[in-house]
Amino acid sequence: MPHHNQERDLELRAALLSHLAALVLGTACAFLVSLLLPLMTSPLRAYLLYPYPAHSFLQAIITILSLVAIAILVGLPHKIWRSLKLRVMPVSSCVWGLGIAAAWISAERSFYSIAEVAILSSLLISIGVYLISKPHKDKDPDGDFQTIYSDLPLPENGEDLLGLQGMVTNVVSSILLEKPAIMAIMGQYGDGKTSFLNLVIGELKKSKDIPVPIIVRFSPWLAGDSNTLVRSLLNSIVSEVRSSFVVPGLGADAARYARVLLSTVPWTERLKEMVSESSQEARIDALISRIAKIRRRLLVVLDDLDRMEAEELETILKLLRGSDKLSNVTFMCAFCEVEVASILKKTRPHQNTSAFIEKFFPVVRYLPKIESVALLVFFSRGVADLLQRHSLPEIGRENIEKIWQQGANKRLANLRRIKLFLNKISGSLTLVGHEVNIEDLIRLDLIRDIQPDLYEQIYRDRSKFWDRSITVETRLEEPYRSDQEIKKERVDFYDKLKASLAEREDVLSLLNDLFPNLSPQLPLFASRSVDPDEAERTKRIFHPRCFRQYFVPKVPSELFPRKEFEKFCSSVKNLEEEGAADLFSQRYRAIVHEEFKSWHFMNLIDLDFDGFESKTMRGLCRGMARNSFPWPTDDFRSLIAARSTLAALTNNLQ
Question: Do 381 and 495 sit in the same domain of this protein?
Fold first, then answer.
């Protein structure tokens, strides 16, 4: 809530500044017109009295109409409308500028009514633009459709998800009380270094007893070369200082200091010829003197040093080497120590770069290792959030913990990896969320991340993974073989598979949960770990009718989509008996010429039939009866209709 209030205050401030600027520009324009108009009055009056060409009015009308037609053809009105709704165009301030100018000019000539109309028109247009661009509470696209986990760091006042408040307080106290020249925040990729910096800055801004430093944020890896890097950094410092103070000469001293730094960079030696060299000490002292006069500490935050090129990193280190003279400046740098040492090997191949780095960072804070329990909580919350956004059923806590222990804890070892994995899941849920079992989807995506070759093998050799015996169509696809032949083939295949995963017990565990009948220890056609009907109802991957949806993000054309079926069930439950019969007939007749699809539709009804109320059961049975005339007696649809009718009669008798 405070974050939204801050945004609103910034918007109000920006609007006030734009309207004040419009007042200034409008008044200035009116002043210039008042000065120049007397000089132009006589020539203009003579020109207006001069007779117009014969077809001038017709030419003007044709030109205006042509321009209007061109604007309509290129969609300009629609673009303007969308721009107004998104507040892209500064219409309000422009209108106020013109209105104020017109009001001043009219008042100068005693046309007070015209001046009032100009101001009133500007006010009405501004109100109209505000109403057009005002966001509607019932339409929040970001809230309804945002299903991607951003890899952006936490904001300054964001929620501390990993319990780092103690370390944040420690760093803030060190900056405010100990005032180090340089401080390093070290951690691995994805550990949340940038988020930690934001939390530190947010906590710094809450300081009341000690003045808050002037905070300069800079990402050095965005600079294209060393020259741009130094100049951009010093310009950022000057800009932040000027936002709070007026310091004459600060920009010039910063530019001279930049030339001192750049003179030490080999490939920019040519800059020496363009600038007359004075004492380097004098240039540095001049900048130090300017900054010291501020009597406020500067905190320069340098993030992502581990993403820089070697030459640029060398430049930053040279800048830090001279920072001890800047008594009221603290440089807080965030990076991965191993990566920075590796980058420096390009320019210092024969040097111990790890020891070299230690010379520059006397104060170091290492981000603590994230506990697996904290990552599990973050992962669980992320999955629950995704399921809620896609209107899908929740997953039990025990099941999430089981998946976590089966290998997710090793693969998803930091926040970044968890976010990227959740984005993969979200992309799949957007396309086939209602067609798959969410737990199976998570397990399969873990296998794809951990063992990509196995993922490809599952799709390629699907008949060896799914349970071919639980659907009629898969049994009929293959020639008849004895149970012994099938069992021997399964034993050989599983032994080879297990041998290839000898060092990946976590992957084998995921695989056994995905395909419970894959292991030869289970009886082939005896008691199954999952009932075939339950497997199809819960959309398990080992069921042949559900398998393809996990790999191809769409519903096979011969199957009835589960999402449509869920809508059908939701609608039919609210109807009386006759309404249920009519709705069944309507849906069935739309697919009557697609034999397998129409059977699959009825098969889904059969699987969920016991969950309907008595009136809905009777209505569905009447709908089946009305559409049964072309079915042969041995047709599967006839069997489903007979079974459903018997279930409905049994339910009525109870």
Answer: yes
The SS3 of residue 334 is strand
Q: Which residues contact 515 (CB under 8 A, 6 or more apart)?
A: 465, 466, 467, 541, 542
Q: Can you tell me the distance from the alpha carbon of 627 to that of 355, in angstroms, rounded to the nearest whole number?
A: 82
Does residue 138 form part of some domain? no
- Nearest residue to 645 via CA among 629, 628, 634, 567: 628
Residue 152: pLDDT band by 50, 70, 90 thresholds? low
Model confidence band, residue 263 (pLDDT cutoffs 50, 70, 90): low
* DSSP structure string for 409-460: HHH--SHHHHHHHHHHHHHHHHHHTTTS-HHHHHHHHHHHHH-HHHHHHHHH
Predicted model pTM: 0.70
What pLDDT does residue 222 have?
Answer: 64
CATH number assigned to the domain comprising residue 328: 3.40.50.300
Alpha carbons 341 and 359: distance in angstroms, whole number: 13
- Indicate if the pLDDT at residue 118 is higher than 60: yes
Tokens of 589: 């007749």
How far apart (Å, rounded) are the C-alpha atoms in residues 355 and 352? 6
Residue 155 covered by a domain: no
Query: Does residue 597 carry a pLDDT above 80?
Result: yes
How many domains does the chain fold into? 4
Clarify whether residues 182 and 129 are in a common domain: no
Name the band, by pLDDT with cuts 50, 70 and 90, for residue 287.
low
Host domain of residue 598: 562-653
- Based on the fold, state whether residues 347 and 376 are members of the same structural domain: no
State pLDDT tens for residues 377-416.
889 999 999 999 888 999 988 999 999 998 898 889 888 8
Please identify, among 550, 579, 611, the residue that sits at the C-terminal boundary of a domain: 550
Rg (CA), the chain: 36
One domain for residues 171 and 304: yes
In a domain, 585, yes or no: yes
Pair (345, 361) in one structural domain = yes
Backbone angles phi, psi at 540, to 5 degrees: -70, 145
In this structure, the answer to whether residues 290 and 330 fall within a common structural domain is yes
Could you tell me the CA-to-CA distances from 339 to 190, 196, 301, 334 in Å, in that order?
13, 19, 19, 12
Q: Is the pLDDT of residue 547 over 90?
A: yes
Q: Per-residue pLDDT tens for 444-493?
A: 999 999 999 999 999 998 888 888 778 877 777 777 767 677 778 778 88
Sheet with 363-366, edge to edge strand ranges: 214-218, 298-302, 329-335, 182-186, 363-366
For 86-148, where are the alpha helices, taking DSSP H only?
Answer: 91-108, 112-133, 141-145
Of 133, 151, 181, the position where a domain reaches its end is: 133
| Whether the predicted pLDDT of 141 surpasses 60 | no
Closest CA to 541 of 552, 549, 529: 549
Which two tokens mark 245? 């103070």
Same domain, 413 and 285: no
Question: Do residue 418 and residue 478 come from a single domain?
Answer: yes
Residue 156 lies in a domain: no
What mean pLDDT is reported for the chain? 81
pLDDT confidence bin for 161, thresholds 50/70/90? low
User: Quick one: average pLDDT of 487-510?
Assistant: 84
